[in-house]
Amino acid sequence: MSPERMTGGSYTVKSDIWSLGLTLMELALGRYPLKGEGESMSIFEMLSYINTETLPMLSQEIFPPGLCDLVAKCLIKDPSLRPNLKDLLVHPYNRECAVAKVNIEQWASSIELPDF
Predict the structure, then answer these.
(1) Cα angle vertex 11, ends 7, 12, to 5°?
(2) Contact 69/88 with Cβ under 8 angstroms?
(3) Alpha carbons 30 and 57: distance in angstroms, whole number
(4) What's the rounded Cα separation, in Å, for the pair 15 and 82?
(5) Which residues, 6+ apart, have CB-to-CB distance to 63 below 8 Å?
């Protein structure tokens, strides 16, 4: 949930942009990004954390700088400063990915599945 919704502000598409940023970060990290791996927090701790703490960002040493920038922009706490959907669609990282040729079959066959 976006910071503005937690503090009683109105819902806008920018609330969804916040959620997109958090989801992209979770996908990149493979875990929920607001606490260390294996750590948990109550809903009240999470609300407080999102509203008062500096959020973690993706490392440009590990992830493409464009992705890091896109996620960081989605997670700007002030919705008036957060990009709108049109801004995200023309973000350089999205433009770069739109023209990239990806062999999905090759990628999928390279994934190692865990033993269950």
Answers:
(1) 130
(2) no
(3) 14
(4) 9
(5) 28
CB atoms within 10 A of CB 85: 11
Q: What is the mean pLDDT of residues 68-76?
A: 96
What DSSP element (H or E) covers 45?
helix 43-52
Which helix (H) or strand (E) element contains residue 50? helix 43-52
Q: What is the pLDDT of residue 38?
A: 56
CB 75, CB 22: distance < 8 Å: yes
pLDDT at 110: 86
Domains of the chain with bracketed CATH: 3-109 (1.10.510.10)
Count the Cβ atoms, other than its own, within 10 Å of residue 41: 13
Whether 109 has a pLDDT exceeding 70, the answer reads yes
pLDDT of the residue at 81: 96
12-71 per-position pLDDT tens digit: 899 999 999 999 999 999 888 876 555 677 878 877 888 888 888 999 999 999 999 999
Give just the sign of the alpha carbon dihedral 70, 85, 27, 11: positive
